[in-house]
Amino acid sequence: MKNYKTLLFLLLGTSLLFCCTSKAQIYPNKNWSKNKNPSLSGWKDVERSVFTRYLIDSTNITGLVIVHKGQIVLEYGDIQENSYIASCRKSILAMLFGKYVENGTINLNRTLEELNINDVSELLPIEKKAEIKDLISAKSGVYLSGSNGGDFRRYAPERGSVNPGTHWLYSNWDFNVAGYIFEQETNRTIYDEIESQLAIPLQMQDWNKSLQQKNGNYEISKFPAYHMWFSTRDMARIGLLMLRKGKWKDKQIISENWVNEIITQRTSYLETQKSVPILKEDGLDLGYGYMWWLIENTGDYRLKNAYSAQGALGQNITIYPEIDVVLAFKTKSDYRRRNSIQTQMKVMKKAVEIYNSN
Length: 358
Fold this sequence. Notes:
Layout: H1 2-22, H2 45-58, E1 63-68, E2 71-77, E3 83-84, H3 88-102, H4 132-136, H5 172-186, H6 190-199, E4 214-215, E5 225-226, E6 229-230, H7 232-243, E7 247-248, E8 251-252, H8 256-262, H9 269-275, E9 285-288, E10 293-296, E11 307-311, E12 315-320, E13 325-330, H10 341-353
C-alpha cells in the first residue's frame, strides 16, 4: 500500500508538471523564435503560400509577420527596418497612460479647462468641459483642426453643437492634445516612456529613440503629432504584450485592468459608421475603445473580440485573442507606396482565414 501511494503521488506530480509546462506561454527573447513546422499548428503550407502571393500581387506591404502562440509562423518582406507607423502611435500612447492613471498622476476626469488647455483658435466654453477620457475615446466635441491631417474632421458637426462625451469623431486634435496632456501631467516625454515602458522590457530589436520626432503646423494648432518609427517585428512585440494582457514573461508591464480598459467599447460600430458613413465601405465593422479599433459584428470565430491599431498607408497591429494570434504589417512611406483602408481590412481577414485549428 505504501509503494502504491508513493507511485500515485509521483504520477500525479508528473501529470501536474506536464500540465503546467505544456501551457507555458512563449515569448521572444532578443530574437523571435520561429515555428519550424507551422502546418502542424494549423497553418498549412499551401494556404500560407497563397496568402504570400496575395501580398505580393495585391498589396504594397513592405513587412509583415504573423505570430501564433508567441512564435512567428509567417513573415514577409523586411521586418526589421524602422519606418513611420502613422496613427498606430495613438494606440501605443493609450498603453502608456495606464501606469499614470493607476498611480493617480493622470485623472481621466480632469477637464481641458482645469488643465489650462487652449489653442491658436480659442476653445468655446462648452469645449473646455471635455475631459481627458473624452480625448482618448475620440469624443471631445472639440472640432478644431489638428496640426496634422489624416482624420475625419470633415464629418464634424458645427462647433459647440454637441456636449463632450456624446459624439464620436476621429480627430487628430483630440489625439495630439492627449499626447500633450500626457507629457504635461507626467513630466516625461512620450518617447522616453516608450523606451522605459515598452522598448527595454520587451527587448525590442530595432527601437531607435533618435528617429522619433514630433511634427505639425503650429500656425493651425500648437499641439504637434507625436510621430513614431518602429520595425514590423517590434510592432509584433507590442501586439503580443496586448494579447497577453500586459504581461511579458514573469512581469506585468501594463496592468491587466488597463489593457481591458483600453479595449472596452466606448463607441459601437453602428455609432462610428453613423458619424463617418464611409466606414461602412471598409470591409469590417469597427467600434472604438481608448485609441484602439474594435472588430465587431463578425461571424468568423477567429475575428471574435479582435482589436487593432491602424495607421494610414498600411500600418497595422491586430490582436486575435480567440486564436492566440498577432498580426503586424506596414508599408514604408519613403517608397511612396500605400495601401487603402479596404486593403488593410482584407489583409486582417485573410491573415487568419488561412488558419484552421481542426
